[in-house]
Amino acid sequence: MSVQPERERVSEAGCWCCGGTFPEAELVRLGNHPEVGVCLRCARWLRRRAVQRFDERHPSPAARVRGAVQGVRAAVIRKGWHRRGALGAVLRWIDRHLP
Ligand SMILES: [Zn+2]
């Protein structure tokens, strides 16, 4: 009789936003509702939506700059430039560093 080595268990859970399955380390939990987990990509998307909503309610010069940047970002995505080879790689890198 042989003994099977115990496999390391990696718990995975679903993202409440996109429905994908992710390891626990790639989920962000809500403070008062820890049962709710959001994947890192969706958390980033939610942050952008939150900043956009905040800027709409609190106009400022910085909010206008962020709005202009988001307008350019939306145009790039609409034209599909973010999927074009080297140009797309540069645009995606810039996107990761946008406010
Ligand atoms: Zn997600």
Automatic annotation (TrEMBL):
<protein>
    <submittedName>
        <fullName>Uncharacterized protein</fullName>
    </submittedName>
</protein>
